[in-house]
Amino acid sequence: MSAFRAKSRHLHALASDFLPTNLPEWTESQKSVREAISKICLDYPDEYWAEHDTEHKFPWELYKQLAENGWLGICLPEEYGGSNLGISEAAIMLQTLSESGGCMNAASSVHMNIFGLEPVVKFGSDEQKKRFLPPLIQGKDRACFGVTEPNTGLDTLRLQSSARREGDNYILTGSKIWTSTGQVANKILILVRTTPLADVKKLTQGLSLFYTDLDRSVVKVTEIPKLGRCAVDSNVVFFEDWKVPAEDLIGQEGDGFKMIMHGMNAERVLVGAEALGIGYAALRRASVYAKERVVFGRPIGQNQGIQHPLAECWMNLEGARLMIYLAGRLYDEGYADGEYANAGKFMAAEAAFKAAERAVMTHGGMGYAKEYHVERYLREATLSRIAPISEELIKCYIGQRVLGLPKSY
Ligand SMILES: Cc1cc2nc3c(=O)[nH]c(=O)nc-3n(C[C@H](O)[C@H](O)[C@H](O)COP(=O)(O)OP(=O)(O)OC[C@H]3O[C@@H](n4cnc5c(N)ncnc54)[C@H](O)[C@@H]3O)c2cc1C
């Protein structure tokens, strides 16, 4: 770890610095989040993440340490035990966890606690907030998020899982896919249709949101073998005649899509920040290796074929970082449209993927070896290009909403 520490500070930060704390654009509160999370990250070096990724082990040690130090409530209300900071600060927290070398394995282990319950904060009753938020902030409850379905994918409005009211309960039947942390969660925030499509005027109507116990006696959760982020599971979830108490319905029946949408821009900012972290981690390893590895009698980084692509990666990451921070600030100021959050997530995911790819190429054969960790970074950098929204759908959004072109999906 010490090999990555800065020796001098002529610039704001060298790409080889380990978690620099003085980058431009950071507010005092962002800097203090960065400093505190960086200290925690020192206990979780790349070797920890490589082991947990290889052995598919959830990073309980980090999760518990963050919970004990109050970090899981970073942007939840103070009255329930949170710190009431903004998405701008949460983005720094998740970027830092990822940038430490933990990548998505680190960020995804707490992602849902950090912001997933925003619909409960905004639309839940006081009784629900008292019941749901403190255990989540304390790390006692772990929540997963069930929106994506096997048959409908990105076409969320046509999702097929349904619920019907029976007395004091709703009866849920259907399936979800990719539900992350389903193996370790005891709660689920789930979106289902309560009014059939044929009976609504608009597709956006008739979906309802529940935050409830993940009752494994009726819900079957099966892990999906996957490319990366292997310390944090993703699952197929099946349920039939699952009795969910009506008191776990969030907001009004039929308003679920509106509530989910509310948190979407913030989630894009957070995922973008997590991607940035991978990109900077990759660039750190690449620049250190390029300086040290000598072939043909000189460091490989003296060759412009190695140096220039890395310089480009830094510029792309910095451009994406400014866009992500702008989107976070706008969200915290109450701006509700999504062009900067979507564009920032797009740019960050692309920049991170490119940086991870260049880090592998810079290491030559050793880039393919697990020992240098960049192959793990590359696997992890793929995810933010796909989820929570794909690159194609972001371009559809920008095309329609910013360019004013016809809706294409
Ligand atoms: C590791 C992982 C973790 C995840 N965790 C969760 C989770 O916790 N909870 C959850 O609900 N979901 C989760 N997801 C799901 C994720 O959000 C979706 O995979 C993502 O939104 C893409 O949906 P899809 O896979 O169904 O793709 P599809 O909808 O099947 O699309 C396939 C491809 O076609 C493209 N495409 C589709 N329609 C169009 C169009 N009209 N124009 C252009 N291109 C189009 C898409 O962009 C995509 O590239 C996770 C996914 C992964 C991989």
Question: What does this protein structure show overall?
Answer:
This protein is of the alpha+beta class. It has 3 domains: 2-123, Butyryl-Coa Dehydrogenase, subunit A, domain 1 (Orthogonal Bundle); 143-257, Butyryl-CoA Dehydrogenase, subunit A, domain 2; 261-402, Butyryl-CoA Dehydrogenase, subunit A, domain 3. Helix content is 48%, strand content 14%. The chain contains 11 helices and 10 strands. The protein has helices at 28-41, 46-54, 60-68, 87-116, 118-123, 126-137, 256-292, 304-332, 339-362, 374-386, 391-402, and strands at 143-146, 162-166, 169-180, 187-193, 207-213, 219-223, 234-245, 249-250, 294-295, 298-299. Strands 1-4-5-8 form a 4-stranded mixed sheet. The protein has a 4-stranded antiparallel sheet with strand order 2-3-7-6, with no helix packed on it. The longest helix has 37 residues, at 256-292. The protein starts with 27 loop residues before the first helix and ends in a 7-residue tail after the last helix. The model has no long low-confidence stretch (mean pLDDT 96). It binds flavin-adenine dinucleotide. Flavin-adenine dinucleotide binds at residues 145-148, 153-154, 178-180, 226, 229, 234, 383, 386-390, 392-393, 396, 409.
